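ARCHIVE CARD
Drawer: 12
Card no.: 0347
Subject: one protein chain, sequence and derived structure
Cross-reference: see card 0346
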Amino acid sequence: MLVATSQHLNDSVLDALRRRGFVADRVPAGQSVAKTLDGGRYAVLILELDGDGRSTINLCEELSDERPLLNVLVLTASPRLDTALAALRAGAYDYLTWPVPVDALAIALDRAVQNRRLRREVRRLRRVLNPSIAFEGIIGESPAMRDLFDLMQRMAGSVSTVLVTGETGTGKELAVRALHRASRRKDGPFIAVNCAALPEPLLESELFGHVRGAFTDARSDRTGLFVAATGGTLFLDELGDMPMPLQVKLLRALQDRVVRPVGGNKEVPFDARIVAATNRDLEMLVEAGTFRQDLYYRINVIHLELPPLRARGGDILLLAEHFLKHACYLADRASIPIDEQAVRRLLEYPWPGNIRELENAVERAVALAGDDGLSVSDLPPRVRDYRPLRSPLSPSDPEELVTLRVLEERYLRRVLHLVGGNRTAAARVLGIDRKSLYRKIQRFGLAEAAGDEAPD
C-alpha cells in the first residue's frame, strides 16, 4: 500500500503509480496523518518536507517509534543536505528531490516495499523463535536448531561428558560456551584449549600440569587445565587431532577423575565437566586406527551435532541481518537494507564455510555497499556468481539419456558437493553404509570431491 500526503503528487502522478500496481491514497497533511495510519495496512508514507523541516522530522521520529514497519519517503523541492540527513536519522527511509520522474519515484517505492517485506519476515522469524529454548549468543529458529536447543536444554544440568561435532564454521565453541552458561557450573571457570594448536609435550603439560624439574624450563610446579577447570567446564577443541599417547592419558583421566602431572608421582583429583569438539569423523578415525575406540565411547556420552548452515533455511536471513547490523555499527554508519536479489543469492548459496563464511561475506558487502542498500554486486564473487546445481538428467535432451553408471556418478558427485565432502553425511543421504560409499568413491575416482581422507 502507498499513502501520499504531498501536495506535489497531483492526480496524474497518483494515476501513474496506480498503473504500476501501487494502491495510492491521499490523507490529511500534518500531524493528523498519524491517526489516519491506524491499522498498519500501509507500507510507505510520502511526506513533503516543510519550510525548515522541523515538523516533518518530528513526525518521522513519532512514526519510527509507533510504526517501525512503515517506511517514510521524504520529498523536498529545495534540498538541504543537513535537513535531509536529519530526516534520515529521525527514521525516514529515503528522500527524493522534487520534481522527480514517475519511474524514479516508482523505483524508490519498490525498494521501500521490499525493505518492509524483509523486515516483516525477520520479525516473524524472531517471533516464532521460542525464547524459553534459546541460548545466549545463538541465533536460529529452523527445525534443526529447535531440536538442538531442546537437546541443550535437557543436557544443561548433566555433568556427563559431551562430544560436539559439526563442520568448520558451524559455531561449535559458541554452542559449548552457551551450554556452560546454562549449566549449574556457570559460575565456575570455562577453559578452552585447542588440541591441534600445541605440540604434544606442551599440550601434555597444559592439560595435566607438571612438577618442578620435569623438563628443562620447568622451574616451578604448574597446575594443569583439568585441575584449573574444577567447578567449571574444560573444553577440548579439535579432539580428533590429539596425539595417540595423550589419548591414553585422557582416557585414564576421564575414567578415574584424577590426573598425574608430568614428572610427578602423585595423582591430583579434579571436578570439571569435559566437553570435546571436532570437525573430524571420529568413527572413521577409529576404523583407521588413529583414534582410540575406548576413548571415543568414553567421550561420546552425549552427542551434540551442529547442523550446517545450508540445512537451516531462514536462519541464513536472521544471521545475515545480525551480521549486517554489527558491521554497520563497527563502520559507524546507519543500518542499510538488503535488496531482494541479494537475499535470494544468500539463500541459494550452499555456504561451505558455514556461519563464519556468511559473516565475512556480509562484512565485505557492508564495506562496499552504498547508502541505498546492499545489492548483489556487493557480495563476494563466489556468492554473487553461484548457480544451483541442476538435475543430472534432462529428459528433453536425447543426448542426456546416459547409462545408470554415469547417472550414479553424477548424483554421487552432487551429494558430495552439497554436504561439503563429508562422507558420513553423504552415506546418510544416500541410505548406504560408509564402506559402500567408499567403494563407490574409489570406483568413480571421486576422492578429491570427498576430501583428502583415504577410503577403507
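Annotation on reverse: The radius of gyration is 29 Å. Residues 129-134, 391-400, 452-456 have pLDDT under 50 and may be disordered.
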